[in-house]
Amino acid sequence: MRIGLMTSGGDCPGLNAVIRGAVLHGIKSFGHDFVGFRDGWRGVVEGDIMELPRQSVRGLARQGGTILGTSRTNPFDGPQGGPENIAKVLEANGIDAVVAIGGEGTLAGAKRLADAGLPVVGVPKTIDNDLQATDYTFGFDTAVSIATDAMDRIRTTGESHHRCMVAEVMGRHVGWIALHSGMAAGAHAILIPEFRESMEQVSEWVREVHDRGRSPLVVVAEGFIPDNREEAIAGKGVEASGRPRLGGIGEYVTHEIEDITGIETRNTILGHIQRGGAPTGFDRVLATRLGIAAVTMASEQQWGKMCALRGTDVVRVDFAEALDGLKAVPRDRYDEAKELFGR
Ligand code: F6P
Question: How many domains does the chain have?
Fold first, then answer.
């Protein structure tokens, strides 16, 4: 079999480990050969491919980013998009299967192509950990560990200056990164897209901590909506896909806290640092296992499915199951974290 791998959407530590796991397993166990599509669906639609021999994946498990490049191209857009054109590209290049490694948007495209009869399997990826049908996605653990380390540092400078410190982390629709990194760093308030809070309440938590002589740390996910606003702050134009580029909530929260409490407050936006650099050991293992599983699935022609983590097992699920809404932080997990706000 000749298998085409592609990585699409926002990049994520662990993508290269998937590619390595897939190529090594495919060559050794099945005698497959591999190509990579450059820059996500763009490479699939345009037939922009590169050969992936065994030596091309040497040392890749520890390397951040994706050697294939990525984009947010929609495989159905433009005159070249759509299943008929993609089928022709696969045939012209002798490609028997596509492994689509991506998040919700990528897998939605993969599902539509598989429904149209194309040989596509999926591997879930997102630092946001917001995909259904998988307990964890690789990249999340790395993002949490980078954010936690940053907050530990933010706290020491905050303590020196007796300031309140705000850290804005990624999380467009869900607050998993904020929840986990905030808990790990001992944040005094964690604000996430799933649940509204008033700035008066946040300021109250800040004041409690400041009154005890500590430096308050507030973690806010980029998609958090304060209870006096209609929608998330998106003052940074639009992405290629047309959706608004979020950002600015950290600044907003910082000003509100300073106005309400009079406590000097500073904002730090962690941004793309959370997605950069080497994956953690956990993410390397998960990504490698998923790469192996995806090739086994393709070998068995299990089109329209993706591999997923359930507990400690790698399982197969239909795309439809993975795309059944986003995996939001449930109320009880937020309330559990809230027990320590202001403490
Ligand atoms: O990968 C998902 C994500 O991390 C979101 O949380 C965030 O909104 C988005 O990526 C930003 O990515 P980019 O700036 O690369 O479009």
Answer: 2
